[in-house]
Specification:
Blueprint: E1 3-8, H1 22-41, E2 46-51, E3 55-56, E4 65-75, E5 79-88, E6 94-105
Length: about 160
């Protein structure tokens, strides 16, 4: 499992016990799973359908850094099932492990939409078609500095 995203535990992320609030952590996991699924399914209308049992086995405190790992478990016709593991970078302890997060691709009307994939891609070839013109290599180059009028260029 690859751990790509990291979060710094800040005061606003804490519960009354001064440890990481579970709701903040679940929000981060859900966002990480959604981003992963959107890229893999090629559909920005991908939503969370289901999360299996959630068991907090350790925690994090203010100032700790946590890292999240997501891995595919099963490909469905309209869905992708993922596994998530979150661990504390400093202690190495697993904070939470979720065995099943089911993400579903939707059409414009909000109905499940077949995606046609059955394997992971590491290329960006599945970026949703609507977003392709917005990809970085298609965007106009931005100036790195202000011009003589001390204004940022208008693009």
């Amino acid at each position: 499992m690859n751990f790509h995203s990291r979060k710094w535990v800040k005061p606003e992320d804490l519960n009354a016990n001064h440890t990481l609030f579970g709701g903040s952590l679940l929000r981060w996991i859900d966002e990480e799973a959604a981003i992963y699924a959107i890229i893999q399914l090629g559909n920005e209308r991908t939503v969370t359908k289901y999360m299996s049992e959630i068991n907090f086995v350790s925690s994090a405190r203010q100032g700790d850094i946590i890292e999240m790992g997501i891995a595919p478990v099963e490909w469905g016709r309209t869905s992708l099932t993922l596994k998530a593991v979150v661990r504390n970078v400093f202690t190495g302890e697993v904070i939470i492990s979720i065995d099943k997060i089911v993400m579903v691709a939707l059409d414009g009307d909000g109905n499940p939409k077949p995606h046609g994939y059955s394997s992971v891609t590491y290329a960006r070839d599945r970026v949703p078609h609507r977003l392709v013109p917005r990809r970085a290599h298609d965007a106009p180059e931005l100036a790195a500095s202000m011009d003589e009028t001390h204004e940022w260029p208008v693009v």
